[in-house]
Structure formats: structure tokens, C-alpha cells
Amino acid sequence: MATVQARAEDASPVGYGELVRQNDNFRNLWFGQIISLLGDWFNLIASAALIGQLTESGLAVGSLFVVRMLAPFLISPIAGVVADRYNRKWILLTTDLVRAVVVFGFLFVRQADDLWLLYTLTAIQLGISGFFFPARNAILPDIVSPRELGAANALSSATWSVMLALGAALGGLVSGAWGIRPAFVIDGITFFASAWFIWHIRLAPRTELSAAEKTLGAALRQYVDGLRYLGQHVDVLLITLHKAVNSLILSSGFQVIQVAIAQHVFTYGEGGGISLGLMFALAGVGTGIGPIVARYFSGDDNKRLRWFIALGYIIGGLGLLFTAPLPNFATVLIGTALRGIGGGIIWVFSTQLLMQLVPGHVRGRVFATEFAFFNLASAAAAAVIGGALDSSLGLSTIIWWMAAFSIVPTVLWTAWLVGGQRDVPEQAAQVAD
What we know:
The chain is an all-alpha fold. The protein has one domain (22-199, 222-422): Growth Hormone, Chain: A (Up-down Bundle). It is built from 18 helices and no strands. The chain has helices at 2-11, 16-22, 24-55, 58-85, 88-103, 115-143, 146-178, 181-199, 216-232, 234-240, 242-264, 273-298, 302-323, 329-357, 360-389, 395-405, 407-419, 426-432. Helix 13 runs antiparallel to helix 16. The radius of gyration is 21 Å and the shape is globular. The chain starts with a helix and ends with a helix.
């Protein structure tokens, strides 16, 4: 009896504080994430505000989001293979250092004729990020135990949300009060700081690749094997699509709309920088609070995580319904927070499911494919919304349509939960054996 109880205690999830105190590797990865994300949101707010000032074109702002998403999409096939073939710590470290150098180039964008440089540097920066994010998701189960995984994923995702809130708010304040360029300098510095923390992660060296495994053909075969794995596991494939659907309906397209709201409806600060920062900040608050509260009820249970994803679509759609009439800025911020809560649940819980379901040897390619779906959907949403903003459609009409489309994934995912063939987490399968 005592042995069974001890095993149950060993398998019980750890708390957030315990995880940060006791796991040095996770703590260094987490601190690096905090600093790096702060700069990322400074950069996004500054870039969007700068383009809005120089062009006053919804399509031009939408093009920024297209570039931000299309670049990592194009790089994702290579990135997934790299994350599964090479030391993930060194991938993270190298990409941080290179991005730090690239970001300082934004300081040379000073007039409308320089926008080609802004788009080019954005493509390079986000293309490099296409290597970073699959490697970061793939490394997490390498540096935490199974009982730490749920807390590590939730804390990492909540950190993304908190830094969205803090970084966007600070970025909006800096851009609105002191101008745009200081935000680019801060972003570059944060990449160096993030690299310093990642340097201190201790990770067991990977097995050296043989000469045959280093060939381009072997890398190609490895990529195809990753696609084959998804084709054989339809449940996992559907889970990898959630971030893309969330981006298509609830997230990326609305980020373009937020720029228009800040510059033409509720304008506070230079170029609407403060308005834009506040909207991103409330979205960050929502994406941080939503998953943490939802996880209190779901735990890391496979079945409950899935049902909460359906709930996330419903909450996100309600946020769009709140926002669509654009009655006042306070209501827009409430709708933005609700949209963030729903999207955050979808994002965090789909990541948790993949970490529980996908074996380590193919994890990098699965996350890279998920990242590719996400970026392609984000680019499509930004392009469509950017074009719609330059058409005769009004802002409210566009948001109403987005709210209507949010019903589709809710119904389809619920149907799969009721009648589909779902995969079992690896550890659960082992216990059953």
C-alpha cells in the first residue's frame, strides 16, 4: 500500500514555484524567454506603428504580418530536421545571437522608401526565429521530468502572455511617448541577454551523426518520415492544426485590425502607439490568465485538455462579438481580453497534448510542421484582413464575419471528440502495458 502511495506521489505534477526553484535548466530557459519576449513585442509594436506612420495603408501594415509569418513558414521544413538532428541548446544560442545583430538594422528605416529594408530585415529575423521556436518546444521535455512537463508548458505559455502584455504596453508607451527607434535598440539587447541564460543550460550531448546521416538525402528522408508520422496519426495531425485555426480566426488577422482601430478609431499617443500597446497588453493578460485558470480544472488529463480547447473557441468567438460594435475603447479592451483567454487555452493545451503524445525522436519535426501551419495561416489572415481594410468593408463588418467563422472549428473539433479515434499519451500506454 505504501509503495503504491509513493508511486502516486512520484507521478503527481509539481507546482510552478517548485519547478523554478529546483530545475536549473528550466529556470535558465525561462529567464531567457522572459527577456527575449519583452524585446520581441517592443519590435512588433514599433514596426507596425512605423509602417502606419510612413504609409497610412492597411495593406502595408498587413504585409508586415504576412512577412513575419511567411518567413518562418518557408524555413520550417529545414528547421524541424535541424531540431531533431543537432543539439537544441546550440540552435537556441546561435539564433539568439544572430537575431541580435539583425535587429539593429531596423534603425536605418527612416522614410517610406526604406520600407523594403524593414520588410527584408523582418523576413531575416523571423526566418531565424523559425529555427528557434521548434527547437525551444522540442527541448522542453528534454530538460524537465514527465511530472514537471505540464507546469513547465503552462508557465512558459503564461510567460509569453505576460510578456505580450508587459512588452506591448511598454512598447506602446515608449513608441507613443519617446518615438519608435528606442524599441529596436531594446529588442537587440534582449537577444544578447537571452543568449547568456541559454548558455548556462546543461544538456546531454546528442549522438554524433554518421557520414551517411549528414547528407542532404538523409535530411530529406528524415523530413518525409516526419510527414509520414503525421499521416499515420490523424489525431496528432488535427492537434497540430489548432494554432493555425486560432491564428486564422482569432489572432493574426485581428492584430492587423488592432492597428486600424488604434490609428483611426481610438487614437492615443503618437500614431496610436499607446492604444495599440494597450490592446496587445489586454490580449496578453487574457492569454496568460485563461490557460492557468483552465488548467486548475483540467490538470494534464488528455480528455479534459481536448474539451477545454473547444471551450477556447467559444470564448474567443464571444470576444469578437464584444469587440465588433466598437462602442468605446473599454469594451474593445474587454473583448480583446476574452479573445486572448480563448486563444490562450487553445494554444497552451494543444502544445501540452503534443508534448504528451509525440515521441522525442520526431518531436522537432512535428513542432516545426505545427509552426509551419500556424505561420501560413497567419500570413493568409493578415493578407486577407489587410486587403479588406483597404476595401469598402467597415471595421465592424469585418469583425462580425470573423466572429461567425469561429463557430466552424468549434463544431468540427467537438465532432472529432465525440466520434474520432484519439491517440493515447506515451506514459499512459506504458502503464496499460
